[in-house]
Write a structure and sequence with these properties.
Residues 41-282 form the ABC transporter domain. The protein is an alpha/beta fold. It is 31% helix and 18% strand. Helix 5 crosses helix 6 and helix 6 runs parallel beside helix 7. The structure holds iron/sulfur cluster.
């Protein structure tokens, strides 16, 4: 997984002119080639002598970019939370690398890893603020805590705490309250203030709105949307609900069974899914057109597939549920580029979509 927290370079001019710097009197100097992308990420738990590890994430290749929201969607067990935990060093990466602005953070150990964590450059926003916030600390102490860990001197903390409160739309009069005296929406905004107070480059938000009512959900999503622009922040939002990503994600990555099955620009992934599992998710999201709901009904109603060869580890990870599975699907498809920044891991993409029309 690559995290690029600097702005993407502007596209080259379409006039055919070169942007390479030139040497006076000499030929154009070629820029150095970009570094090769890191290999796809794998995560396994329980690697001990004499005991088989449980592989929970395999071959995941994603990029989070500054100022963008990357939505990661999948059901329970898909590996989406593991992916986020691996980025902050809470889950063991056994293959591939996670790079942060070109720096391999998977290789960091000891002091270097502690320094990265303390710096607050990468922040993790937990799903349940009631459990993640210390009930005995005040709002002001909770938001100041990451600054203290990062080594910010006490006098400099207070104005930054107040600024963070303002950034998330909370009144300064709440600074002395404990989490138990806040509403659910206010607690989640305190979590967000805690996450952004260190001016991170990457924010991982794990199901940030799943515990909130509709009004607070929209409020927190709008905040995330605003803050990524204001702070030029790379935001990764993890969710099981495609609907909550639809309004803010620039790109969407779909995980199933620990594998990346599809990714691409949000609008295209939602409007024209290339993987049957994505189509099922898109069709199940509330408030969608009728034709998409009928596609979901077809995919949902297909039931388990009988062929035992489609249930092996060598088969496509979705084969046991897929109504379009055939002999080819006994071997696992690798993610393939589809143009326009999209990739999909399906032998039948996009041809399977024609069957939806019948
Ligand atoms: S590869 Fe085959 S089983 Fe897997 S999603 Fe595509 S059609 Fe379905």
């Amino acid at each position: 997984m690559t995290v690029t927290t600097t702005q993407q370079p502007a596209a080259p001019p379409a006039t055919g002119t070169t942007t390479a710097p030139t040497t006076p009197g000499g030929p154009a100097r070629r820029p150095p080639p970009p570094p090769p992308p890191p290999p796809p990420l794998g995560v396994a738990y329980g690697r001990r002598p004499g005991r088989a590890a449980v592989q929970v994430l395999t071959g995941v290749d994603l990029e989070a970019r500054a100022g963008e929201v990357l939505g990661i969607i999948g059901e329970s067990g898909s590996g989406k939370t593991t992916l986020a935990r691996a980025v902050v060093g809470l889950a063991p990466a056994v293959a591939g690398r996670i790079t942060l602005d070109g720096r391999d953070v998977t290789a960091l150990r000891g002091r270097a890893l502690r320094e990265l964590r303390r710096s607050g450059v990468v922040q993790y926003m937990f799903q349940d603020p009631l459990r993640s916030l210390d009930p005995d600390l005040t709002v002001s102490q909770l938001i100041g805590e990451p600054l203290a860990v990062a080594g910010v001197a006490r006098p400099a903390r207070e104005p930054r705490v107040l600024a963070a409160l303002e950034q998330v739309g909370l009144d300064a009069t709440l600074a002395d309250r404990t989490p138990g005296r806040l509403s659910g929406g206010q607690r989640q905004r305190v979590s967000l203030a805690r996450a952004v107070v260190t001016r991170p480059r990457l924010l991982l938000a794990d199901e940030p709105v799943s515990a909130l009512d509709a009004s607070n959900r929209n409020h927190v999503l709008r905040l995330l949307d605003r803050l990524r622009h204001e702070l030029d922040l790379a935001v990764v939002v993890i969710s099981h609900d495609l609907g909550s990503l639809a309004g803010i994600a620039d790109r969407i990555a779909v995980l199933y069974g620990g594998r990346l099955v599809e990714q691409g620009p949000a609008e295209q992934v939602l409007e024209r899914p290339l993987h049957p599992y994505t189509a099922l998710l898109a069709g199940s999201a509330p408030g969608l057109p009728r034709e998409r709901r009928s596609a979901a009904a077809l995919l949902r109603g297909s039931g388990p597939v009988d062929d035992p060869l489609l249930h092996t580890g060598a088969a496509c990870v979705f084969a046991h549920r897929c109504p379009f599975a055939d002999d080819d699907c006994r071997s696992r498809p690798e993610p393939r580029q589809q143009g326009d920044g999209r990739t999909v891991a399906c032998h039948r993409a996009p041809a399977w979509r024609e069957r939806l029309a019948h």
